[in-house]
Design brief:
alpha+beta, four-stranded mixed beta sheet, two-stranded antiparallel sheet, 2 helices, 6 strands
Length: 89
């Protein structure tokens, strides 16, 4: 397996973006493999790593359907209830 190119923080070439940057553009990786990574050094720990994807291969975010919205609302409601006493927490 070939290793990924590693770029320093804020020095990645144009055309590559992280998942969050893709999401801000209304895109998603769409099944593509990670192309490179960015490392941000930290003082007392290992570096923070962010994986990069190609923007030109990214696909649009899937639209929210009514059934997806209902499932998300149900999941969020389940998180707000205490599982033992069944009270809102």
């Amino acid at each position: 397996m070939a290793s990924l190119p590693v770029y320093s923080w804020r020095l990645a070439p144009d055309g590559l973006a992280t998942r969050r940057q893709l999401r801000a553009l209304g895109l998603r990786p769409g099944g593509q493999d990670v192309v490179a990574q960015v490392e941000r050094p930290r003082r007392r720990r290992g570096p923070l790593v962010a994986y990069l994807y190609r923007v030109d291969l990214a696909r649009p975010v899937r639209p929210m359907t009514a059934r997806r919205a209902a499932a998300l609302a149900k999941a969020n409601a389940a998180r707000r209830w205490c599982p033992t006493c069944r009270r809102p927490g």
